[in-house]
Amino acid sequence: MKVINLGDSNTILNKFIAQMRDKSVQKEKMRFRTNLQRVGNVFAYELSKVLNYTPKDIRTPLGIASVPTPDNKIVVATILRAGLPLHQGILDFFDDAESAFIAAYRKYDRGDEFHINIEYCSSPDLSGKTLILADTMLATGASIEITYEKLLEDGEPDHTHLVCPIASVFAVEYLQKHLPMDKVTLWTAALDEELTSQSYIVPGLGDAGDLAYGEKI
């Protein structure tokens, strides 16, 4: 699995990530969602550079212009609920993409032990397409792995791009062992070293779903 950390470069993306992390700024839910959507915009733009392009003749009022345009058939998939603003940010650029949605969450068994439970998956046929699987936080890697395997039941994409703005080093190492090396690329903006015993990323940013939409019961 190839890993691309956009946060290693001097980019406006880092400003959005900084505001999402800042506990004095993230209290404003609308601002958090807006920043997450803008993060999706940046990832979509950068990801567009690795797609396949073919020149097309476009008729203007005065003549013909040859313009390289992407050929990939794209599906944007998101793990509910924290990924929704990120999903929209990606769709802002890939506006003709199809969408898939997965309800996956941690179900605690006892103490800090949990497994990933999937209750819902809605996806188009993925065969031969480019899959962009977006989730705001990548803590253990288990949710992404199980979601990826679930989505493959709807066809095998040519390539899968994981868009996870905040990721733990542990999760990256885990996915590199469990996902196909040549079929998956991980895009992130920050690699955090620490993962607590409860599998929370440190410094991370907290619960992205709660910050975007309010605390759940």
Quick take:
The chain contains 6 helices and 14 strands. The chain has 217 residues and is α/β, with parallel strands linked by helices.
What would your notes on this structure say?
The chain is α/β, with parallel strands linked by helices and 217 residues long. It has one domain (2-49, 71-213): Rossmann fold (3-Layer(aba) Sandwich), CATH 3.40.50. It contains six helices and 14 strands. A seven-stranded mixed beta sheet has the order 1-11-9-7-4-5-6, sandwiched between helices. It has a three-stranded parallel beta sheet with strand order 8-10-12. A hairpin with a 5-residue loop joins β13 and β14. α1 packs antiparallel against α2 (29-48). The N and C termini lie far apart (36 Å). 35% of the residues are buried.
Q: Give helix % range.
A: 25-40%
Tell me the number of helical segments per DSSP (H or I, 4 or more residues long).
6
Category from helices, strands and their pairing: alpha/beta
- Rg result: 18 Å
CATH architecture: 3-Layer(aba) Sandwich
Beta-strand share of residues: 35-45%
Shape: globular
Q: Could you spell the SSE succession in H and E letters?
A: EHHEEEHEEEEHEEHEEEEH
Strand order of the largest sheet: 1-11-9-7-4-5-6
Q: What is the CATH topology assignment?
A: Rossmann fold
List low-confidence stretches.
none
